[in-house]
Amino acid sequence: MILNAFNLEGKVALITGCNTGLGQGMAVGLAQAGCDIVGVNHSGADDTPGLVEATGRRFVNINADLMDSSCIPQVVEQAVAAFGRIDILVNNAGIIRRQDAIEFSEKDWDDVMNINSKTVFFMSQAVARQFIKQGNGGASKSAVMGLTRLMANEWAAHNINVNAIAPGYMATNNTEQLRNDEGRSQEILGRIPAGRWGKPDDMMGPVVFLASSASDYVNGYTLAVDGGWLAR
Length: 232
Hints:
The chain is α/β, with parallel strands linked by helices. The protein contains 8 helices and 7 strands.
């Protein structure tokens, strides 16, 4: 039955930055599909553990500063110690520094590149090594199209699927300033065919699909979840 292909019962998903927003939505969606969740957050996991545990699944939080990639081996080690394996990686953690290019500092540049690109690669690398060690593994998600294609080409031989999700304008903490600017908000909404800001719940279906065996022949693809923004 095709619905069985979406069943993630007994799988373990490691998700970075899942204390709020899109990461929290994906964590809950994967838990509803059957996953136990390892959250990697800079501090606490807020109310995500309760939301995951309400589905009957388990949640373990690992505190780590992903600005520094040297913490990654220990994060993977702790995740494996907690559940014995990792099946799915969701590289969700990311930051935005809203500043004109003329004012953008070197520290801002380093911070954004470290967590949005460098950590994505080295977290994926570390978890892929664990997948190969286990003899199987699930889907590794990143937010960087080039890295996604690179890793997909190299790791497909190990039955590791690497895909990305590209969210559009979502109602999260990162866009609060934009949404509070009535003029800018209306300008953005006017360009979204769906006519609304996205919600964390909108990420549940796409992440479950890409993490499940239903997408076994999808590799190196970036799935836009944007209400039709790119279709304009």
